[in-house]
Amino acid sequence: xxxxxxxxxxxxxxxxxxxxxxxxxxxxxxxxxxxxxxxxxxxxxxxxxxxxxxxxxxxxxxxxxxxxxxxxxxxxxxxxxxxxxxxxxxxxxxxxxxxxxxxxxxxxxxxxxxxxxxxxxxxxxxxxxxxxxxxxxxxxxxxxxxxxxx
Amino acid sequence: xxxxxxxxxxxxxxxxxxxxxxxxxxxxxxxxxxxxxxxxxxxxxxxxxxxxxxxxxxxxxxxxxxxxxxxxxxx
Lengths: 150, 75
Hints:
The complex is a heterodimer.
Chain A: H1 3-31, H2 37-74, H3 86-115, H4 120-148
Helix pairs in contact in A: 1-2, 1-4, 3-4
Chain B: E1 4-8, H1 10-16, H2 22-29, H3 33-40, H4 48-58, H5 62-65, E2 66-70
Antiparallel strand pairs in B: 1-2
Helix pairs in contact in B: 2-3
């Protein structure tokens, strides 16, 4: 598994965990009397900050762990080289494209809920959810392209 | 319309060049070993620039490394 694949896997797992946390919190709110704006706003902040922080920390941890594993394998203290070449860029671009399409569909669905009489809180909650789902789909498509090639 | 595919002789050329490893070739052309593996396996068609770099490493013309053939047309 290349460094890029490890990074994407870490990102995928973190997005999945954040997505599960977000959904569980939303369901909990729904069951305890519906969405309350103050609680929903704080949940959005937590989720958005978590996505940023977890991605940065995840990248750093992957880098450190990769170097430790590399050192254990080779028995040398040299750092593993990380090159991003044209194939990595292409896969990244394709992943972003898939992510963008998934997010666009999510935005459309969120707007439709508003058009069909749901409160704006539901629409914005769906927007945040669709951004997380889009990231997950983007990560999955990148992993698929790394494995299958194109 | 007929389907064409980029084929290559990278594996053979590596073997003929003192059994050059994928890692060594990757270092020489500035890509990852995974990209060389993907090229050799026919899973990735490199850019023109990378194709020329690979040909330069082996010191052969481009068409000796890569060819554009009908899919399923094995040599």
